[in-house]
Design goal:
The complex is a heterodimer of chains A (223) and B (338).
Chain A: H1 4-14, H2 25-31, H3 35-59, H4 68-90, H5 92-98, H6 109-117, H7 124-154, E1 156-157, E2 171-172, H8 186-211
Antiparallel strand pairs in A: 1-2
Helix pairs in contact in A: 1-7, 3-4, 3-7, 4-5, 4-6, 6-7, 7-8
Chain B: H1 14-36, H2 39-61, H3 66-70, H4 74-85, H5 92-108, H6 120-131, E1 139-140, H7 147-155, E2 164-165, H8 168-177, H9 185-191, H10 203-219, H11 226-245, H12 253-258, H13 262-269, H14 280-300, H15 307-324
Antiparallel strand pairs in B: 1-2
Classes of the chains: A mainly alpha (223), B mainly alpha (338).
Chain lengths: 223, 338
């Protein structure tokens, strides 16, 4: 039985949906053009994950093993439809921008992966917490990626924030005429995601080396 | 030649190979300066300095022997290829960013010399043409080679009217693709100020310079005949076939070979020993694929030249090509063993 803090650590870092499991790359690459879009979709996914993991966990005694995957998908799809309608009603401008990627949360493999790997075997509150923390870990990476791409691509942060917080404005860091198209285009997302995964691996290697109480300098053979 | 066997070949050091490759670029560079002014020298210096500094920094970060790798000249050749494939009047920061991307990301992050799956110079070209299509399409017009104006373009304000023009390849494609004006190849070439006898005015001489340097590299046995021949033959062949079918819509093979980066590519880019195929038959397939793709992208694509994208696409295919073209081990028949 995992404790809540262990579940949190798994979701945020050790089994991070994107950096460790490299799951759900479609929305990761598609909606991280700005920080606002990235965080919005990340939080929507986290909400769906928490509810679907909790729901599946509550119903796990009644779901026949052989057809569990279709049943999981139906539960997830129902929840995603609710989130979709909620976005449409209350955050309509953002809904138009995120478009197909809100309904596509259904097909995001990280949602089904957590339901199958965790919620189907664990109690309700643990499962809900696991889905939520996995979603927050995903949101964190999307946020970093979105902020980096927005900054590199057009020199701003929080573009489109007025769609969520009325009256707020994007912060322009670089001059008005700055633009570096690659940040906005999919290749830029791949390159930045690669850098993020490299940083994570580097931090983990360093932590492991420190834990072994060895000198932190890895021995490198001269090529 | 020694008189007694065994005859051993002393392998050429990376540094000697790279320095000879750089030397072979000199005739082309000389023609470049003659026709389009000294701006290219500024770009070469910028790219070289950036490449060496960037390589030294990332090597130090990776705790590799800095001097050993910086002094092998491979970064220098990458830098020169970047400068020679970019328009000579691009702003300085564009050259610097592109060179850093080529050296740090494409070369060193994949493991350094000998490990990179993609051609660094071409990856940098592809990055910049996607990110800054406008700046990467402004080539100097022949005859506007005033060095002071060019320096202004590189380091200061950009006032471009009358100083820059599209390359012959670009001008030809734009004219052929325009809907209201169904031009023919011959008419476009007759009108356009940028066209010469074989390719672009001035550009054909630069191409000839690269050809001269390339032939010297062949004589020095730094490149084998496979890649340049297969590349030029494939490019010429497909261009020739389509030119015969419809000479009004498709330019001559000679125009394709002497335009854009074809001859620079044939001897200096396609032949990159790291990112290209390694088996003899694989080299033929690899280079011929680049030739075909180059023609396709030039003819129907949206960018000024197709070589960079063609090279990157074939780079992806290299592991497959190498796997399927393994020559049988000596003494075995094809199909023996694993």
């Amino acid at each position: 039985m995992s404790t809540f803090s262990e579940i949190s650590r798994n979701g945020l870092w050790k089994q991070n949906a994107i950096l460790a499991q490299v799951l759900g790359l479609c929305p990761t690459l598609a909606v991280t053009t700005t920080l606002t879009n990235a965080v919005s979709l990340g939080l929507a996914t986290a909400l769906v994950m928490a509810l679907s993991s909790g729901g599946v966990s509550a119903l796990r005694a009644f779901i026949p093993f052989e057809i569990r995957i279709p049943v999981f998908i139906l539960i997830i799809a129902a929840l995603v439809t609710m989130v979709d309608l909620a976005f449409n009603a209350w955050l309509h401008e953002l809904y138009v921008i995120l478009g197909i990627f809100i309904p596509l949360i259904v097909t995001n493999c990280i949602v089904l992966a957590r339901v199958e790997a965790f919620a189907a075997k664990n109690p309700v509150w643990h499962s809900t917490w696991d889905g939520f923390m996995m979603g927050i870990g995903l949101t964190g990476v999307l946020a970093v990626l979105g902020a980096a791409r927005e900054f590199v691509g057009q020199g701003t942060v929080f573009e489109g924030i007025e769609m969520i917080v009325p009256g707020a404005h994007a912060i322009r860091i670089l001059p008005e005429d700055y633009s570096f198209l690659i940040g906005v285009l999919p290749p830029g997302a791949f390159i930045l995601l690669g850098v993020l995964i490299a940083v994570r691996n580097w931090l983990d290697t360093r932590a492991a080396a420190r834990a072994r109480r060895q000198p932190t300098q890895p021995q490198l053979a001269a090529a | 030649m020694a008189h007694n066997s065994p005859y051993l070949l002393k392998p050429a050091s990376v540094r000697s190979v790279m320095l000879r490759v750089a030397a072979a670029l000199l005739p082309g560079i000389a023609a470049y300066v003659y026709f389009f002014g000294a701006a290219i020298l500024v770009q070469l210096a910028l790219a070289s300095a950036t490449a060496l500094a960037g390589e030294a920094a990332i090597l130090a970060l990776r705790r590799k022997p800095v001097w050993l790798f910086v002094s092998d000249g491979s970064a220098l050749v990458t830098a020169w290829l970047i400068a020679l494939t970019f328009p000579p009047v691009v702003p300085w920061w564009l050259t610097v960013t592109a060179t850093l991307f080529a050296i740090v990301v494409v070369k060193q992050l994949y493991g350094g010399l000998g490990q990179n799956p993609f051609n660094p110079a071409m990856a940098a070209f592809a990055l910049m043409i996607v990110a800054y299509p406008l700046l990467m399409s402004q080539w100097p017009a022949a005859g506007f080679a005033d060095f002071h104006t060019q320096l202004g373009l590189i380091f200061g304000e950009r006032a471009l009217d009358g100083i820059t023009m599209a390359t012959p390849l670009d001008a030809l494609r734009t004219a052929l693709h325009s809907e209201e004006n169904r031009a023919t190849v011959a008419a476009v070439i007759a009108q356009g100020a940028s066209f010469g006898t074989l390719g672009g005015k001035g550009w054909e001489w630069i191409a000839a310079g690269y050809l001269l340097g390339g032939l010297w590299l062949l004589q020095q046995r730094i490149v084998t005949w496979h890649m340049p021949l297969a590349f030029l033959a494939a490019l010429g062949l497909i261009a020739g076939v389509f030119h015969l079918i419809n000479g009004d819509q498709f330019a001559t093979p000679l125009f394709h070979v002497f335009s854009g980066g074809a001859l620079l590519g044939a001897f200096f880019i396609v032949t990159d020993p790291v990112s290209g195929a390694t088996t003899p038959r694989g080299k033929l397939i690899f280079a011929a694929g680049i030739g075909l793709l180059t023609w396709v992208i030039r003819t129907w694509g949206a960018y000024p030249d197709g070589i960079a994208f063609a090279v990157l696409l074939m780079n992806i295919a290299v592991p497959l090509i190498d796997m399927h073209t393994q020559p049988p081990v000596f003494g075995h028949k094809k199909g023996d063993g694993a």
